């Protein structure tokens, strides 16, 4: 009797493990990024091979603040939401009032589970009265599809089909103008518009994650390399440089912006109930619009506010000294543990030692004095414990007029 050889269980496990370890070949921009990579410093961003740095993480940061920096945002999850009920659908699942978002505009928003805990934050682009693009850190397609039942709306992930670039820094506008994107000077902060490119169109928004003058560009994947080359040619005399995530992360911290599953744990990832966060607990309470009717988590959010059950607060800290307090514990009167620093750096722009921290109320809320952070600094192969005074300060830590200037400045 002929039998097919059975696959050994160990082989099956090895194949499965290999599947989860293997990253996608790369984004549509990967050939250009690989050609510029000198540090060979990569990480896994949503299954894509993405650079921590390309040539020098310190100089890449200064490229953002003094010239124009190009960063590949293609791995960011992107959803097309389209149909007669698209507005009503997005108004029900997100916190902000989508009826106030005009075509040609984008806003920063978030969405919650039924318990009022944040599932994720992201940006919502209104491309037409019935067509939107929702961008996020995590993947939410099953949840979005379930939420759309009974509505005349189509939700489709388009992460691989749409390539994206962030162009950030004082010369960003000049790069786009020199790359012959006619009319780009008319884009105000959070505006979006379509421009001709390579026989198709590119969507450009005046948005970014750096707190600087900046733009984000979205193009069909097949036109990605021609867009990259067009920007590089246009920015040749404006100091354009490709960068990795480390530099971008430093800039976003100076801008006081938060990152999902870094500064807060999304409800889809949280294992312990006390790690869950409501919008008010991570500085996103300003998004909540109670005038628009029902939305996901509304009842729980209203109840938590009324019964004063908000247990945490996300704050900006200024810390004495110049040693970054990354993941440092925060104490009250040097003895009572009250929170944790999630991101920290010495800011070259603010000339301050800054941090974002999650604290247990009332600390950081009504009690803001006598706060300390515990830093362990390496000194000649030994850790030295340092207790440094911290004070609660507003975010953003820096505010650049060029980010909002109209028309944008020609540096």
Automatic annotation (TrEMBL):
<dbReference type="InterPro" id="IPR006222">
    <property type="entry name" value="GCVT_N"/>
</dbReference>
<dbReference type="InterPro" id="IPR029043">
    <property type="entry name" value="GcvT/YgfZ_C"/>
</dbReference>
<feature type="domain" description="GCVT N-terminal">
    <location>
        <begin position="58"/>
        <end position="292"/>
    </location>
</feature>
<dbReference type="InterPro" id="IPR028896">
    <property type="entry name" value="GcvT/YgfZ/DmdA"/>
</dbReference>
<dbReference type="Pfam" id="PF08669">
    <property type="entry name" value="GCV_T_C"/>
</dbReference>
<dbReference type="Pfam" id="PF01571">
    <property type="entry name" value="GCV_T"/>
</dbReference>
<feature type="domain" description="Aminomethyltransferase C-terminal">
    <location>
        <begin position="314"/>
        <end position="399"/>
    </location>
</feature>
<protein>
    <submittedName>
        <fullName>Aminomethyltransferase</fullName>
    </submittedName>
</protein>
<feature type="region of interest" description="Disordered">
    <location>
        <begin position="1"/>
        <end position="25"/>
    </location>
</feature>
<dbReference type="InterPro" id="IPR027266">
    <property type="entry name" value="TrmE/GcvT-like"/>
</dbReference>
<feature type="compositionally biased region" description="Low complexity">
    <location>
        <begin position="1"/>
        <end position="18"/>
    </location>
</feature>
<dbReference type="InterPro" id="IPR013977">
    <property type="entry name" value="GcvT_C"/>
</dbReference>
């Amino acid at each position: 009797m002929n039998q097919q050889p059975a696959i050994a269980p160990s082989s099956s496990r090895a194949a499965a493990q290999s599947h989860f370890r293997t990253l996608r070949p790369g984004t549509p921009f990967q050939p250009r990024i690989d050609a510029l990579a000198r540090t060979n410093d990569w990480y896994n961003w949503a299954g894509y091979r993405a650079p921590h740095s390309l040539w020098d993480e310190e100089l890449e940061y200064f490229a953002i603040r003094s010239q124009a920096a190009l960063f590949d945002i293609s791995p960011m999850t992107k959803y097309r939401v389209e149909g007669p009920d698209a507005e009503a659908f997005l108004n029900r699942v997100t916190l902000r009032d989508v009826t106030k978002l005009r075509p040609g505009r984008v806003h920063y928003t978030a969405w919650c589970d039924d318990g009022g805990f944040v599932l994720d934050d992201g940006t919502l682009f209104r491309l037409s009265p019935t067509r939107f693009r929702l961008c996020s850190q995590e993947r939410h397609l099953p949840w979005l599809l379930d939420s759309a039942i009974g509505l005349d709306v189509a939700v489709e992930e388009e992460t691989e089909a749409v390539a994206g670039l962030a162009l950030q820094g004082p010369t960003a506008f000049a790069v786009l103008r020199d790359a012959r994107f006619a009319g780009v000077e008319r884009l105000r902060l959070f505006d979006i518009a379509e421009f001709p490119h390579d026989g198709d169109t590119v969507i450009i928004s005046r948005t970014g994650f750096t707190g600087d003058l900046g733009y984000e560009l979205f193009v069909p994947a097949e036109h990605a390399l021609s867009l990259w080359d067009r920007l590089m040619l246009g920015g040749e005399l404006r100091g354009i440089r490709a960068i990795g995530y480390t530099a971008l992360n430093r800039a976003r911290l100076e801008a006081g912006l938060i990152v999902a599953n870094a500064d807060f744990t999304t409800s889809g990832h949280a294992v312990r109930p006390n790690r869950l966060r409501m919008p008010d607990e991570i500085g996103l309470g300003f998004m909540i619009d109670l005038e628009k009717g029902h939305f996901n988590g509304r009842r729980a959010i209203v109840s938590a506010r009324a019964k004063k059950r908000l247990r945490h607060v996300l704050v900006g800290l200024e810390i004495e000294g110049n040693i970054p307090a990354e993941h440092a514990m925060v104490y009250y009167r040097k003895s009572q543990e009250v929170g944790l620093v999630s991101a920290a750096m010495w800011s070259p722009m603010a000339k301050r030692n800054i941090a974002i921290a999650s604290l247990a109320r009332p600390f950081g809320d009504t009690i803001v004095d006598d706060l300390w952070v515990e830093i362990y600094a390496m000194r000649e192969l030994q850790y030295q414990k340092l207790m440094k005074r911290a004070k609660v300060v507003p975010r953003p830590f820096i505010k650049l007029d060029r980010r909002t200037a109209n028309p944008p400045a020609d540096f």
